[in-house]
Amino acid sequence: MPDQASTDDLIVRYTHGSSIHAIATETGLTHYKVRSRLMAAGVELRTGGPAPRVQAAEVRVIRESATRALPAGPAPRLIPRHLAILHLLADGGTDKLIAETLHLSPAAVSNDRQLIYGRLGARNGAHAVALAIRYGLLRFAAARGRR
Predict the structure, then answer these.
(1) What are the distances in angstroms from CA 15 to CA 9, 38, 59, 60, 82?
(2) How far apart are CA 84 and CA 66, in angstroms?
(3) Which of 21, 66, 72, 106 is the most buried (most CB within 10 A)?
(4) Which domain holds residue 111?
């Protein structure tokens, strides 16, 4: 199947441990073409060591998530208090910790979280943080958490 291998097939082979050299040999593609297709698909190339094992379903989910469009229209508008709560959620804050930090009651934080979820269309805190990053409401560095 020279030059006929789909990008999805290349991703599956690579994530299941095949080297770029082995994939090129099996598919009849050049090393450059295999590497270029993998990089264009957003696959992080290995620099050495054992290959991670990823299932085909995981590859599909990752690709779909990366290309999923946000709802049409402008990003939801959040008040500064809601943005502060999102930042603290991104850092792993519990309602109690957020309440103490912002001098609010835990009930007020819980109510605000529900309002944030509704505005963003989120199902839970992790989803709210992910959507906020995708909308540009949170910078990625703010959502990396404490180390």
Answers:
(1) 10, 10, 8, 12, 39
(2) 26
(3) 106
(4) 80-143
61 and 33 both lie in a single domain: yes
- Has this prediction a pTM greater than 0.70? no
In the chain, how many domains are there?
A: 2
Find the length of the chain. Answer: 147
Question: For all residues of the chain together, what is the average pLDDT?
Answer: 81
Strand, coil or helix: what is 102? Answer: helix
In angstroms, the first-to-last Cα distance of the chain is 47
> Following DSSP, what letter does each residue of 47-86 receive, concatenated?
-SSPPPP--HHHHHHHHHHHHPPPPSSSPPP--HHHHHHH
Task: Specify whether 22 is located in the same domain as 43.
Answer: yes
CB 100 within 8 A of CB 109: no
More confident residue, 30 or 143: 30
Residue 139 and residue 88 share a domain:
yes
Q: What is the pLDDT of residues 28-50, one digit of tens each?
A: 888 888 888 888 888 888 776 55
Q: How far apart are CA 119 and CA 21, in angstroms?
A: 48
Dihedral in degrees, nearest 10, Cα atoms 57, 59, 64, 66:
150
